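Support request, priority: normal
Reporter: lab tech (M.K.)
Component: structure prediction queue

Hi team, I submitted a job for Glycine zipper 2TM domain-containing protein from Pseudoduganella ginsengisoli yesterday, and the status page still shows it as pending. I've pasted the exact input below so you can check whether something in the sequence is tripping the parser. The sequence length should be 197 residues. Please let me know if I need to resubmit or if it's stuck on your end.
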Amino acid sequence: MKIRNITLSLMLAGLSAGALATPAAKEVYAADTKKAAARYAEDKKLCADEKDSGARMQCQRDAKAEYDKALAAAKANMNNAPKAGVACNECGRVVGVNVVEKKGEGSAVGVIAGGVAGALIGNQVGGGSGRKLATIAGAAGGAYAGNKVEEHMKTTKQWHVKVQFDNGTQNDFVFEKDPGFAKGDLVKETNHTVVRR
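Reply from support: The job had stalled in the queue. We restarted it manually and it finished. Here are the results:
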């Protein structure tokens, strides 16, 4: 009877702390505290079987500590459960992750370096006016090739993460590095990006 009263008072204290918890969370909390009380009662019976009074007292302290831990865990689980009537507009679920290549942009450096290299190679060909034409063609071809090489070297990957929010909206978020998200991950929008929740 005494344990039942303790359990009831602890349940009431926990329920008032999580008054906004969903009914399912309250039921889980009630079941967890009931389980903890039953285990505590069993542990106390085992402690009574100890022959030495010192061992009996230590056993009871250990049983009480375990009981307190179980109640704290049950309360934490209830408080971390989604609250009834409190919508989280920033909360959502990843519905897709796509990796795309972002094409690099060439600059004057690639054009100039390619042009010089092409001109030097073209200058090695032929003689007279043919050499001049080969140098010009080499410079033009080298400039084009240098630009393309630089574009290829500057190509990067981007991760596009599509999120379906709890309020029904969808949004895409772009990451320059792999965010480690997979389809189904629970996320929350913060500072114009998403993080795990």
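The mean pLDDT is 75. The longest helix spans residues 53-80. Let us know if anything else looks off. Ticket resolved.
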